[in-house]
Amino acid sequence: MIAPGSPAPHFTLSDQDGNEVSLEDLRGKTTVLAFYPLDFSPMCTDQLNVYQEVLGDLEQQGAGLYGISVDSAFAHKAFRERLGITFPLLADFNPKGEVARRYGVYTEERGHSRRALVMIGPDLEVKWSHEAPSPLEIPGANLIFDALAAR
Amino acid sequence: MRGEGALLVEYADLECPYCARTNILLNDLPVRRIFRHFPVVSKHPRALLLAHAAEAAALQDRFWPMHDSLMEDQGRLEDPHLWQRCRALGLDLDRFEADRRTAAVAERVERDFRSGVRAGVMTTPTLFVDGRAYPGIPGEELLGRLRQRTAETRARPTGR
Fold first, then answer.
1. Helix, strand, coil proportions of chain B in percent (round to 5)?
2. Which of A36, B28, B95, B136 is most buried (most C-beta within 10 Å)?
3. Global pTM value
């Protein structure tokens, strides 16, 4: 997984509405990328739901949040509606998992990313990263707040 | 807080079916339960409102009866159902209606939720026993552990 202090690897991905989001768009603000395995899987549902509940607090602390998985923009759109979440989901769809690979969180044998959080600073440098020790463990929102507090 | 035995802190959402199942399992155990609200509104649209209702009932010393009433029948959670429950539990309905909209009640629920986030709660229910988190419906291992802990723990006074 990408280590703090590294320049954030470049990406341009489509969000759930087909809008392109590039790393460059994140310059000047703190951003958390939440890599997760798959839309509609039970654990990811819990994870993104709780992140949604703390979104106001994250924004208050000046941080933006993006979810990323290998699912398509159309699946993301349906998943967001199903969950009632309002933060954007990015489609690491084609080439599949390319951005997850660049951030070192892709699992070849499963064909999706591992569960990981990456905090990117306003200077587009990786400030913090965390990978769940197992796919069954959800990185708590507390980890994001701890990382924000340590900025 | 209710019950006697091993201490268990429980983060739950009153609209969550897994929490309802857990409630049934815990009701069979001699444990000292502390309930903390963890309403996940994006998943359960009525969760926050129900948490406020339970806290309003708490102000009339009916937290656990309201909690059990909601957990035991999650199919009827609209306002008229809440009023029905209030009548059945002997609550002063006017006071309940006023209390559940107060800032104090909202802050109490918010405080519980934030404490859960700080403790790393990411799903409901999440139970804490001896400082360790157990996410999800408790399995036989945890239930056995609670029975064992209870046998070791001397009964303590109860209260809310």
1. 50, 15, 35
2. A36
3. 0.85
